[in-house]
Amino acid sequence: MRKLLFVVVALSGILLACETPETVKPEPTPDVYIFGTEGREVGTDIVELPNGDFLIPGGTTGVEDGDYDMLITRIGPDGREVETWVYGSPGINESLERLIATSSGYAGIAAQVSTNGARRTVIVTFDAELRETNRGFFDVASFPYSLYEITGLESLDNGGFLMSIVNYESIFLFRIAPDLTLESLEQYPLWSYSEGPANLLTRVSDGFWLVVEADDPDDFNNSIIQVNHLDLDGNSDWSAEAAIPNSFNLTISDVTPLSDGRIAVLMRPENNFAAIALLDSTANLLEVLPVQVANYTFFLSELPNGKFAIAGNQYPPGISSSSLNDNRTIVHGLGADGTLEWTQTFGGPRKEICEGFYYSSAGSFVLTGTSFSFGLGETDKFVVLYNR
Fold first, then answer.
1. Dihedral of CA 364/368/374/380: which sign?
2. Which of 10, 103, 354, 371 has the fewest CB atoms nearer than 10 Å to its CB?
3. So what's the pLDDT on residue 285?
4. Could you read off the pLDDT of 301-356 as tens digits, one per residue?
5. Half-sphere exposure in the Cβ direction for 244 (13 Å, CA)
6. pLDDT tens digits, one per residue of 184-219
7. CB 88 within 8 A of CB 70
8. What is the maximal distance between C-alpha atoms in the chain?
9. Adjacent-strand bridge partners of 354
10. What pLDDT digit, counting tens, does each position of 86-130 carry?
11. How far is CA 48 from CA 52, 54, 205, 258, 322, in A?
């Protein structure tokens, strides 16, 4: 483990696009904090600590060997950097994609690529002081690398883990023992998935849900949400399907348990339309909330009074997600019926990519990802702390 001191840029205001020569990066304005070196950094997830601080995992090339290394930055509720940890080995590119709290500390998933192109997924455990304690390696060589997404990590009560990975044709569920060895691997067919962050595995009151999408054989315009329920030990015990009407080309991107026991499934938009499907604890469809947004929204959080917030990226008409221009990170506030109530965007003259979103216990909207517009290096990690 190595500690890395970032150069941090922090100002207050609203991030707006501005005309700036590409050779000189502007300073960000609103409740936005840039953490980076002259290398490349990315932020991927958000964990809130009991004292209101946050852990932001990701990756950095800002150490001596120049390869990507795993990175965790602890920041305070005011955006200040408290401490940063870097973990890695020469000749190996690895970046933390997910981070969760466990009974003994923390655990994360890293996507690892060696200099000879070999690919593995790594689960790393840490103690409460973020000292690395163990690693488990899982072969994903059969997955096309460009089509490989980590879609969930959850801890089991016995100290083991569940991990889900998508390769666009199937979703794979790994059940992992406390010593980080593989106990079982299940494969589920996947009918629809498009590139972008997704959370398809989540803990519910009596176990876990793994949610996949299928086509409705009786109506091409519908999609089917297939819920695979696992018990508290991670064993499959039942499955159910819910047909979502008029949902052709929508893709499941987040599954969120709500405070009243319902489960919200965010289906991200195509053609200016998204949807939130509300299911009961046995996967019966209760209601579908249409959401009129023209953006790639990947994340959903429950707000007070039964309202919602969804977040992701905004691409202007005719601009693809791979463009370096005119891309924003965006948050939409929704009423309990899915009605759009407000929108806030964050971005600069180039591209910001949202990789994580969280609504904190103090009522702040927290976002993280990669900034091409601000900072010292080619890319830097951004954190938005937005109070509305």
1. positive
2. 103
3. 94
4. 999 999 999 998 876 555 555 444 567 788 999 999 999 999 988 877 777 888 89
5. 30
6. 999 888 766 556 668 899 999 999 999 988 776 777
7. yes
8. 58
9. 369
10. 998 777 888 899 999 999 999 999 987 766 666 788 999 999 999
11. 6, 5, 20, 18, 30
d(CA 37, CA 27): 15
pLDDT at 244 over 90: no
pLDDT score at 308: 96
Amino acid occupying residue 85 = W
Contact present, 363 and 48 (Cβ < 8 Å): no
Structural contact between residues 164 and 174, judged by C-beta atoms closer than 8 angstroms: yes
Give 153's Cβ-side CA count (13 Å radius). Answer: 24
Residue 9: pLDDT above 50?
no
Q: Among the listed ranges 98-102, 155-159, 162-166, 380-384, which one has the minimum average pLDDT value?
A: 380-384
Measured distance CA(5)–CA(37) in Å, rounded: 9
Average per-residue pLDDT for the chain:
82
| Distance between CA atoms of residues 15 and 29, nearest Å | 5
Query: Residue 305 corresponds to which amino acid?
Result: N
